[in-house]
Amino acid sequence: QVQLVESGGDLVQPGGSLRLSCATSGFTFSRYWMYWVRQAPGKGLELEWVSAINPGGDSTYAADSVKGRFTISRDNAKNTLYLQMNSLKSEDTGVYFCVKVVSGSTWYYDYWGQGTQVTVSS
Fold it and tell me: Which positions ≥6 away from 58 have C-beta within 8 Å?
């Protein structure tokens, strides 16, 4: 079965860095777009899209709120997705999820992990 397991979340001071990882299994990782999304505290079920990467890993996209600070990458040999987070701000606090994306005539999230908590605070 499809599994996505995020790790790397932590408590970090503003200006600090973290690297999130998402280990995947149960599907052909190299064939799918992957996203990172986050859920801010108090936002209920609202998810904010953070970043995207194409199957080959040579095209990436980032939300304006994280552009220049966060870098998405993937290792298709290891079936693993990453998010390098630099210059962290308090507003980056939240639960971060990696998402397997179905692309085509319509795009939608079909699987996501349990999330990893990132807290940015002094």
Answer: none
